[in-house]
Structures are given as structure tokens and as C-alpha cells.
Amino acid sequence: MRKIFVLTLLVTFTLINLSCSNDEGETLNASESEITGTWNLTALETKDGRSDTNFDGTSIPTTFTAVGKDFNIVVTFSEDPNIVTSEGSYTTVITTTVMGETSTEEETGEDFFESDAWRLDGSTLYFGTGDEEVGFTITELTDNKMSLRYTIDETVDFFGATTSVSATYNMTLTK
Question: 27 by DSSP, 3-state: which?
Fold first, then answer.
């Protein structure tokens, strides 16, 4: 049971960090000058998280949420070149339910964005380059607040198991 739980968590977090898609239909258009500058990470959550891992014919459904707290992160968007960096730490409270058993763990994170490229296309803010690019939908943008969201709905094969994962991920930055 413990191996299955650890495998499910590993696949879930790998998918959340690597496989993201932007939401379609947003009409917000931002400019690079609105993004450029120093922001503070003030909210972070994953909701409606679901995964289903099929391992040797056994289906293991999982639900999960994650909520950030104790934010001490400064995020800087520079231009020419467009690079995003961060410095500081935060804590994520992760609640997972596997086969009827719920567990909650706290995980400390540092440097939310490692030095990475960023670009803007309408209402989508992309991080990374090439195959490693991740698109966040800008759901709100004012002089003092930027709210970002991405959804995941992916299926991957991982160490002989097939896992389907879906979730909505929200982040808020303020000046």
C-alpha cells in the first residue's frame, strides 16, 4: 500500500510540475510592461485534483488539494532578456486521499521560479522554452495584483503504470 501511495504522489507531482495547459476563451490582453517588475507570491492552491493510476490491472483513484502558506517569495520579471526569477520560501499543505485514507503533509519550497524565460501572448503568460514551456492564463491583472491559472488534464505512462491527472492550479502575485 505504501509503495502504491508513494508512486501515485510521485506521478501526480511530476505531472503538475511538467504538464500544464492554458485555459481557452479568456479575453484579457496584457502588455509586457504590466508584467515586468517585482511581485510577491501571496496565494497558491491546487483544487479539484484527481488522479487515477492503473498498475497491474488495479485502479487506484486519488484526490488531492494543495494550499500555500507562510509566503516569503519575491518574484522578479525582467525584460531584455525576459527572465523570471524568485527568491525566498513558502510552505505547501498537501491533502491526499487514496483508497479512502486521507493524509496531510507540509512541504517547504524555495525559489518558486528558478531563472527561466518568460513571454506573453494575449492573456497567456508562458514560462520556459520549447518543449518545457508552460502556459498560465492571466485571470486578473491590475497595477497591484496578477492572478494566474492553469489546468492539467493529462495521461502518462510511468514505471509500468498509467496515470490520468486533472487539477486546477491558481497563483496570486501582488506588488
Answer: coil
